[in-house]
Amino acid sequence: DGGITQSPKYLFRKEGQNVTLSCEQNLNHDAMYWYRQDPGQGLRLIYYSQIVNDFQKGDIAEGYSVSREKKESFPLTVTSAQKNPTAFYLCASSHLVGPQHFGDGTRLSIL
Amino acid sequence: AQRVTQPEKLLSVFKGAPVELKCNYSYSGSPELFWYVQYSRQRLQLLLRHISRESIKGFTADLNKGETSFHLKKPFAQEEDSAMYYCALSRRSSGSARQLTFGSGTQLTVLP
User: Fold this and answer.
1) Blockwise average pLDDT, block size 10, chain A, 111 residues
2) Minimal-distance CA residue of chain A relative to B40
3) Rounded to the nearest 5°, which phi and psi values hold at B80?
4) Where are the beta strands (DSSP E) in chain A?
5) 3-state SS, residue B110
6) What is the side-by-side order of every strand in the sheet holding B60-61?
């Protein structure tokens, strides 16, 4: 089963620690996205990338960083500057004008 | 700024009854709207988009620009329709990837 793979499924962060969430896709999509989902709320866009070595801030980029060194990969780092990191994180990818395909998500919690 | 509102967090209907999930939006540009669905233990997936004007799994949605709505409808609900439904609006800079704004979702339960 191909598509989008997010890892790990569950992640715990200590205070002051940076953590990195992995997102890999084998769909040959140009664009990749990171969303955050909080209880009772919809998904909010953190960062997106249209092409390798390029990415743009979404609506809630503060406290997060990304890289896009390969077309297949778009890791998200939740930095210590993100004061409320507990959430469910979803990665998606698409052709530039196509629908977005989502991964299974990573649930991040604070220890 | 763009905004998507789904006024019902929870919606229950009986099997065979009609169902309508409401979605209203605000956006200054020309909207492109989608419905996404997440079944239990499955990934979020695209259900339909307004530009396709298609019917998927018996669901339809019509964009009403006058009322700024994109309600999802099905004439006869089935138990397998029970899921979380998200309405989403796409905004796009010229030639670039879509940036989606999601509503908060409606959990639909179809009762036997």
Assistant:
1) 88 90 96 92 92 93 96 96 92 87 93 81
2) A104
3) -70, -5
4) 4-7, 10-13, 19-25, 31-37, 43-51, 54-57, 64-66, 76-78, 87-94, 101-102, 106-110
5) strand
6) B19-21, B72-74, B60-61
Of A10, A21, A26, A14, nearest to A46 by C-alpha is: A21
CB-closest option in B34, B43, B96 to A102? B43
Closest-CA residue of B relative to A93 is B97
A103 at B interface, C-beta within 8 A: yes
Residue B66: how many other CB atoms lie within 10 Å:
5
Which pLDDT tens digit goes with each residue over B45-87?
999 988 777 888 999 998 898 999 999 999 999 999 999 999 9
- Contact check, Cβ <8 Å, B102/A31: no
Local structure of A28: helix, strand or coil:
coil
